[in-house]
Amino acid sequence: MDNLIQFFLPNVSQVMDEFYLSIAQTLQMVFLSGLISFVLSLFIGIALISTKKSGILENLFVFNFFDKVINLFRSIPFIILIAALIPLTRLISGTAVGVQGTIFPLIIGITPFFSRQIESAFNEVDEGLVESGIAMGLSPFQIIISVYLKEGISSIARVSTITIISLIGLTAIVGVVGGGGIGDFAIRYGYQQNQLDATYVSIIVLLIFVSIVQIIGTLISKKTTH
Amino acid sequence: MSTSEIIRTDHVVKVFTVDKKAHPVLKDVNLSIEKGEIFGIIGYSGAGKSTLVRCFNGIEKPTEGRIFFEGQNIVGLKARELRSIRRKIGMIFQQFNLMPSRTVFDNIALPLKHSGLSKQQINKRITELLQLVNLPDKRNAYPSQLSGGQKQRVAIARALVNHPKILLCDEATSALDPKTTKSILYLLKRLNKELGLTIVVITHEMSVVKEICQKVSVLDKGKIIEQGDVYSVFSNPQQELTQSFIETTSALSSVKTLIETNSPVVRLQPGQLLLKISYTTNSVSEPLISYISRTYNVDANIVFGDIQILNDNPLGGLIIILSGQKSTIDHALEYLIPKHVAIEVLNHG
């Protein structure tokens, strides 16, 4: 086994510990920023769907605020966003490097996209269901819980899959600024030292991550569709 | 205001504003719905029926006018008060609007959220309702496993779970085939009788009104152009639109096409007369046709007829060919005219 690794990965096999660590770092970044962003995006998505025109709590001021802020952040390329956020990241995380320094920019980078995705998932919920909820005498809060969230689960699972996969891509980009993780590993060994095996093995690891996320996402989406 | 009134609209106006352009949808609608009746509101699409019915439970807020539910003006009520009114008003829809991710049981139980009922009470209530709508074995099915008629039955059960006073049906049978439509209408009729449930039926099909309604309002471009009990509106329609609705359900109108195409069925010999005789009141019990042929010596050949029983009264008429001498035919007609039947001479031989 060890021989096999040494044969296929002549360079990576020299830094196996670092390789394993970078995998763990990527998982940590995806999990933490994904989870926090998911919660934030649910709230923003709910705000957008309820305050939109003829929504259950129509409020165009709130809607336009979130709508414009999302557009603003989505128009900034992630790599520039990281740089722009450095002072704020230092303030919040205490550092702008390493895994600890990447969580905040990752959240800011993915949440606007995630919120739009969640909003579109809610938009897929049939208006008729919302109307029948209103006719039943449900409160706006009950409609959010019992109609949008409950009936939107399958769509939410689907858009979350797409978003987590994008997020995995972003965690690789933070490698450029020394954020740690697979991206960092691939840049330092594969790119800067021209060790091709490091690049390829990084691709394979990311491919496995993406596949696992996709399989889980599809499974949840199927299980929640009746 | 009479005490038996459950819903009354008072000069209701609704204007939608799209791109700063005003679109009046309801123009001064006044109607009154009594407890225990099945009230039809008929009109073509775009007439404002759905908007009107949504004003009844406050989903739409009228631009002007007042809506009374059991004597209380619901226009301008706070959201919380409006929600408690809505629990007394059931509503079903053309597209059923069942929650696809929930079983039949959970769909029916949905309006009971935070009602304070125990699990057992909820269970008992839903068992009752499934019995009532005749779907006792579907409690754990998902909506996607049900037929259209079954979905509407579940929707009816869901609408009734809070013991509402009134059920609003927004084109509830328009997505169903004729046979299923009949069975749903029969169910509504039964609920009306057994529970004393007031039912408002919104439809574009006159056959639905004819099947179950006692009163009807004809809505055209946001205005009520005719209303009254179904029998008098049907037997004696005043407005052209009402007539056109009624023609859709009566076979008698096809005689016009037969005459135009010179069909052998209505071709006349010299001296013959093609007549349409229709009921105008519900008190016709005399054997008119056999009487005139016996007394005046005219032959009455019934070409075809369409007589239906509406609220226990006959409605419709006959197309007949009268033959005989001109004077005897005239006598026969003179006899018929005061007999509360409408006589229309369609063609001379």
CATH architecture of the largest domain in chain B: 3-Layer(aba) Sandwich
Widest sheet: strand ordering of chain B? 6-7-8-3-9-10
CATH homologous superfamily grouping of the largest domain in chain B: P-loop containing nucleotide triphosphate hydrolases
* Mean pLDDT across residues of chain A: 92
Helical percent range of chain A? Answer: over 70%
CATH third-level topology of the largest domain in chain B: Rossmann fold
Protein name (chain A): Methionine ABC transporter permease
Transmembrane segments (chain A): 29-49, 69-88, 95-114, 161-187, 199-220
Keywords (chain A): Cell membrane, Membrane, Transmembrane, Transmembrane helix, Transport
Membrane topology (chain A): Multi-pass membrane protein
Task: Describe what you observe in this structure.
The complex is a heterodimer of chains A (226) and B (349). Chain A is mostly helical. Chain A has one domain: MetI-like fold. Chain A is 81% helix and 0% strand. Chain A has helices at 2-8, 16-51, 60-74, 78-93, 98-123, 127-135, 140-173, 181-191, 196-223. In chain A, α2 runs antiparallel to α7 (140-173), α2 (16-51) crosses α8 and α5 packs across α7. The model of chain B has no long low-confidence stretch (mean pLDDT 89). The interface between A and B is medium-sized, with 22 and 28 residues.
